[in-house]
Amino acid sequence: MRILLTADPELPVPPTLYGGIERIVDLLITQLKQRGHTVGLVAHRDSNTLADRQFVWKGQRSQDKLDAIQNTLLLKSAIRDFQPDLIHSFSRILYLLPLLRSTIPKIMSYQRYPSARTTSWAVKLAGESLTFTGCSEYICRAGRASGGIWHPIHNCVELEKYTFRPTVDEDAPLVFLSRIERIKGAHTAIEAARRSNRRLLIAGNYSTTGEAGQYWREEIEPHLGKDGIEYVGAVNDQQKNELLGQAAAMIVPIEWDEPFGIVFTEALACGTPVISCPRGALPEIVRPGIDGFLIDSIEAACDAIAQVSKLDRSKCRQRVEQCFAAPAIVTQYEQLYQQHAQFKNLRQKQQC
Fold it and tell me: Is the pTM of this model over 0.85?
């Protein structure tokens, strides 16, 4: 098949540091090429992938109206040039506007909450030529309220980047790895670690301005350097592998409905159990008592910390190999491509 992928215009594919969607698109391109497909990409000008053809967005701001117009026209031109059998968009659905009434199969993937208004009018215009994926069943449930056909396909992990650690030291630390803001629950992780008399390593970016800056100064910074609570800064892929691998558990007790959260599967890939909360997509990732715990209070978090050493770390790794590894996830996309491409063939037969 000839498949044209699109990514948001702000970051290159793959990203140099952070950029979960861009990593997924890069993995998808690599795996699809290995399976014999011809792949095109519309993305940031600094993208460096194995795609057969690459087209560069003219505008680099997703929310800018002028950039949106330029990018919509650019995508239309790229399709005319590349002649894909199917379009798979990880960027704005607005860019598909001129193509919605065409019979070319289109897949729109959401890594965050879909807009009810835009998805509903897209379904009305495109009909069966458009289908949706969400990075979790949780996101798909939100999308289905606006109509259309939705398929949950989870985000994937590059297993080769994460070293499985079957055992850790008895005094292994807990790790918090995420953006340091209230909804990620770093303050809860600190309190649970202090009550459990366990070391906690905190990694991730933090802000110095606004509410997030106030949160850092008042609820996180005063605890650093005391009771085994340490801040280790932002981490790259190699540092992340080392940090997660040495941990007794990763504790990120979220206070919002997480659309997916790739870091949870990255921890499991290292064999590291996850302690979080039963919100958003977390119940789709963590099996309580098998590869982690889902908690709803400080007391429950302390109980989970006391029990993590009893979990079999190999089951954490197996969970990722079976459900979240790149080959397994790309196979789901490939099957959806083949299924959805039949729509165009059926329409052409009906017109004959």
Answer: yes
